[in-house]
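Q: I'm writing up a methods section and want to include an example of the input and output format. Could you take the sequence below and give the corresponding predicted structure tokens, formatted cleanly so I can copy it straight into the document?
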Amino acid sequence: MYIKRPFWEEKLNFLWKKSSIIWLQGVRRSGKTTLAKSLEDSLYLNCDLPSVQEELSNPEHFLKTFKRKILIIDEIHQLPEASMILKIAADNFNQIKVLATDSSSLIAGKKFKDSLTGRKRNVHFLPVMVDELSAFKQDLKSRILHGGLPPALLAQELDLDFYGEWLDSFYARDIQEIFAIEKRQPFLKALEYLLVSNSNLFDVTKLSQVSGISRPTAVKYLDVLELTNAITILRPFSGNSEQELVSQPKVYGFDTGFCCYCQGIRSLGPNDTGAFLENLTLETFQAYGLSKYLKYWRTKTQKEIDFIYVKTKNETIAIECKWKEKNFSDDVFNVFRRLYPKGENWVITSDSLTRIVKSKNNVIHFINIEDLGTTIHRVLEGPN
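A: Here is the clean output for your methods example:
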């Protein structure tokens, strides 16, 4: 049974008004194919099949005879000339809406000789978001523990085999096949280390030591994992203060369920939920295409704000994530706003009533995580 995901359907229709080509990228089993097949007046083609590869071997002829509104090309990197059909469609058949889906970024595959700059729109498709949970009949804690990939989220019990099998498939299909990385064990060790390090600072040298690889190889792995959306790396925000961190990155895993799996969490304790609320906050910004404006802030005395949204050169939104509102103190906002006075202060929680509170030193927007998407759309004007 298909569970509708209207946010993504609306996003596709919005972007098709700007470009006839949309590249839908996201990790395996996140629901890309299910979403694509649900689109009306569409033809779905799976490029894993030799018959489909043969059908698309003459793109011009195929597009001339195409009679529907939407063409869906899944696993497009399997085509010998993967970018050719998209270029021909964009330049000569732009009345056809094309949705190309894959697990990694358009530039990831070596077969893409043309980057299609200016001809396409990229969409980073995500696991089930917080404001989609009611449609899936799941609650916030289930979403954190099981993760947001629909097969895992909808499982009645935690299925540990699913996560191990997914990691094996991810390596075989996305990493070895596309990027030709031959050493399976070091790569998976690197990924598992990063998922364990979720929401924390990490060091490339430590990553190389844990994985048994050289530092240049560790940097290569990081690039690949970012391209395939398996991790998100956040850089520090700094105005060149001598007291601020200026280089060490933070890492977030693509899905809370896999972070729990690699960390050995089989049921959520009171200390587990706060960090994963950061993941859900980050994913909401990613859904709106705004994560490129996110950083984190930390001083050398370990004063830290989870996210800094760089709205303009001189204006920032400082964002703290607290599972319970009672655990929040505005001390860190006081420190930050002495250095960077212009901008809003947001506190994301699981239990707040969304509202604005004026404290002695700050105006604070308390936002329930379920309302974050609506707030982003209102304040930051929605998808780019």
